[in-house]
């Protein structure tokens, strides 16, 4: 009788507890399934994020590289434009350099011609010589005006300090009344075209005795 009662109690307890277990098991199964799904998705999301981060870094590097190339291209273009502009300006200023050199010989001849005429003979009593001399002087003055108009300036450095960029020394000699290192004699005047020496003056330089 006692064993029968024990079995009855166990069966009744089993019947009471079984519905509770039946009700709890779907929720537990859903939670476990979600946890398992989350654990499965985490590696996939991590791999995708890594791939996106890598692509972003590559794109940023490409943008940086292209920006540097663009800046260098702009700088090269600006340098080329500046050099081209300088070449154009120099061509305008010094394009007549060859013609000026040829005209310098004409100016030298006119200067020699006027200097060779005895001034005491240039009088109204000698009208032919006077007219010739006046014509030479007027021509020399006019050609110097043309030179000045086009930026050609005469260099007559008598008494100035010797400058190797503007003067060409033919000799060095002691000269009374001249400081050493100064121009004592000008054999041929020089010329500068827009500040650039076109022909150096031929000079003799004084030196210490």
UniProtKB/TrEMBL annotation:
InterPro entries: GrpE, GrpE_CC, GrpE_head. Keywords: Acetylation, Chaperone, Coiled coil, Mitochondrion, Transit peptide. GO terms for cellular component: PAM complex, Tim23 associated import motor. Transmembrane segments: none annotated. Residues 49-83 form a coiled coil. GO terms for biological process: protein folding; protein import into mitochondrial matrix. It comes from the Eukaryota. It is found in: Mitochondrion matrix. GO terms for molecular function: adenyl-nucleotide exchange factor activity; protein homodimerization activity; protein-folding chaperone binding; unfolded protein binding. Signal peptide: none annotated. Its main location: mitochondrion. The keyword rRNA-binding does not apply. Essential component of the PAM complex, a complex required for the translocation of transit peptide-containing proteins from the inner membrane into the mitochondrial matrix in an ATP-dependent manner. Seems to control the nucleotide-dependent binding of mitochondrial HSP70 to substrate proteins. Probable component of the PAM complex at least composed of a mitochondrial HSP70 protein, GRPEL1 or GRPEL2, TIMM44, TIMM16/PAM16 and TIMM14/DNAJC19. Binds to HSP70, HSC70 and HSJ1B. PANTHER family: GRPE PROTEIN, GRPE PROTEIN HOMOLOG 1, MITOCHONDRIAL. Belongs to the GrpE family. This is GrpE protein homolog.
